[in-house]
Structures are given as structure tokens and as C-alpha cells.
């Protein structure tokens, strides 16, 4: 799939999902975003850029920490997501936030204008993330920092799902996906450099960073039920899979997933899945 077509697909998917993104009785992006902010530690007065800000799971906690003397800019390629983030900032009374529609792979922003760049489950999904990281480094002041999250990729798992789902999604369903979206090809083209920490560190050094720190931590993904999780999966990255499945296959997959997820519940309690997340921080090498 060509880069422009890929970006249009992603933009359309998240425009459609914006009003329900990271809602619907499931928590994952919000606790992950908070933890990224904790690990990076924005300081009062910092100028922060959040790349692929979504509804503000990382942007808003960072904005609170930098205080009224700081400024946080959130950018996202999906206009509807930017509007949702703006509403959420207003709802929470966070006033030092600016939102813009912008391609995070080619941000049209002045050089050396930020102290901190963030990207939770966003930067690493850019079509050429390694080249984009060099552009992000150019946006940082001397000594500026970057922090982002990534799935813990392996070549035999779907790139936007916790590992347990690889066993629940029949490989036959891959025939309904465009070839460029097959997990093995995506891993080879986009994510192979993220699998091993040494390769990831080398990519960051090549992009102009130093003092790279990589830590894997589980983030609890909780859902009130299996049905709630499947409904929520239509609002995030897995939406791109659902869109390509014929009605019968989609219904069968839904039943399979709901049954497996509800089996994890303790009575009427929630579904809870420990999702491995990779936290990466670095400092620009100047």
C-alpha cells in the first residue's frame, strides 16, 4: 500500500472512531499515556509536542505538569480526533494546550522549538518512523528529550493487539486483508527495527539521539465485558481489520473473541489483560 493511501486509510478510520475512541468501558491508552508522562517527567515551563495525540491521553497529563508557564501542542492527522482532544481539554479545564491537524511524519513546525516530544502508540506506526525520528530530533532544543511507547513486537503477532489475540484470530482471516497489511509483512517493513532493543537504540542514535533508555512494563487493559472489548476494538487500530472482514467472518470472530475474553472474568468482574508495552526515552545529542 502506498504511503498516501495508507495515511488516508488511517485518517478515515480514526475520523470515524474519534467520538468513541478509548471509551466504551475499556481502559488502555489512558493509563499507558499517564505512565509515559510519569517516566518522562515534564517540567514546569516545558514546551511539549505530542505527536499523534488522539484524545489527549498523554497530552493532557503532560500539560498539567508543565503548568501555566508551559505550552503543550498536540498534533494528529485525523481532524475529528483533534476536535475530540480540544473538547476533552476544555472539559478538564486544561488551558495551556493547543491542537492542530498535522501529519506527525512531516511536522510543519519550527526547528528547536520544543523541550519534549511525546508519542504514545503513534510515532512507531508512521510509515517511515526512523526518518521521522530525525525530524522530531530537529524540533527539539539542545538537550531536549523524546519519549514514546510501542507494542513489544515479535514477527508472529499482530502489530496492534496484545499477544493473546494471535491465537484467537484464525490465520485464514488474513486472506481478507490487503497483502501490505499482513502481520509478517508489516513487521518486516515497519516494525523489525523495534523488536530488539539494540536495533531500536541504534535507530535512535542514527536519528540524532543519545542516552537511550528502553523499559518493558505491563499495562492493564481492562474491559467491563468481552462484548465491550470487541465494541471498543472497532474504535482503534483493530478497526482496520474489522473493515476488511465479510459479515459472516466478522460475526464468527466476534463470538470467538467474546467467549474467550469472558472466560477471563471472575464472575461479573471485568476482563483484565496485562499488555506488554515498551517505553522508550532519549535525549537529543546536542
UniProtKB/TrEMBL annotation:
Residue ranges occupied by any Methyltransferase domain in the UniProt entry: 48-144
InterPro entries, per the entry: Methyltransf_25 (IPR041698), SAM-dependent_MTases_sf (IPR029063)
Name the GO terms of the biological process aspect.
methylation
Keyword annotations for this protein, in alphabetical order, are:
Methyltransferase, Transferase
Q: Give the Gene Ontology MF terms in alphabetical order.
A: methyltransferase activity
Entry EC number(s): 2.1.1.-
Q: Which domain of life is it from?
A: Bacteria
Q: Where is the signal peptide?
A: none
Q: Which Pfam families match?
A: Methyltransf_25
Which PANTHER family does the entry mention? TRANS-ACONITATE 2-METHYLTRANSFERASE, TRANS-ACONITATE 2-METHYLTRANSFERASE-RELATED
Q: What is this protein called?
A: Class I SAM-dependent methyltransferase
Amino acid at each position: 500500500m502506498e504511503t498516501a493511501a495508507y495515511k488516508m486509510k488511517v485518517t478515515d478510520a480514526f475520523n470515524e472512531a474519534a467520538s468513541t475512541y478509548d471509551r466504551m468501558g475499556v481502559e488502555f491508552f489512558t493509563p499507558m499515556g499517564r505512565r509515559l508522562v510519569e517516566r518522562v517527567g515534564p517540567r514546569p515551563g516545558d514546551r511539549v509536542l505530542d505527536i499523534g495525540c488522539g484524545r489527549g491521553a498523554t497530552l493532557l497529563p503532560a500539560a498539567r505538569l508543565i503548568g501555566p508557564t508551559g505550552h503543550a501542542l498536540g498534533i494528529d492527522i485525523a481532524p475529528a480526533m483533534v476536535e475530540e482532544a480540544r473538547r476533552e481539554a476544555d472539559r478538564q479545564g486544561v488551558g495551556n494546550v493547543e491542537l492542530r491537524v498535522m501529519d506527525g511524519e512531516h511536522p510543519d513546525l519550527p526547528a528547536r522549538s520544543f523541550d519534549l516530544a511525546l508519542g504514545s502508540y503513534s510515532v512507531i506506526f508512521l510509515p517511515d518512523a526512523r526518518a521521522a525520528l530525525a525530524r522530531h530530533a530537529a524540533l527539539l532544543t539542545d538537550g531536549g528529550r523524546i519519549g514514546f511507547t510501542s507494542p513489544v513486537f515479535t514477527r508472529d503477532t499482530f502489530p496492534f493487539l496484545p499477544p493473546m489475540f494471535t491465537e484467537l484470530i484464525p490465520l485464514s482471516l488474513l486472506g481478507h486483508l490487503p497483502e501490505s497489511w499482513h502481520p509478517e509483512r508489516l513487521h518486516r517493513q515497519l516494525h523489525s527495527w523495534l523488536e530488539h532493543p539494540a536495533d531500536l537504540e541504534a535507530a535512535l542514535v542514527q536519528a540524532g539521539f543519545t542516552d537511550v533508555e528502553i523499559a518493558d512494563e505491563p499495562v492493564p487493559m481492562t474491559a467491563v465485558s468481552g462484548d465491550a472489548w470487541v465494541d471498543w476494538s472497532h474504535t482503534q487500530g483493530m478497526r482496520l481489520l474489522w473493515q476488511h472482514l465479510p459479515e459472516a467472518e466478522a460475526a464468527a470472530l466476534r463470538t470467538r473473541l467474546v467467549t474467550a475474553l469472558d472466560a477471563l472474568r471472575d464472575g461479573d468482574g471485568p476482563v483484565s489483560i496485562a499488555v506488554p508495552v515498551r517505553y522508550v526515552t532519549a535525549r537529543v545529542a546536542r
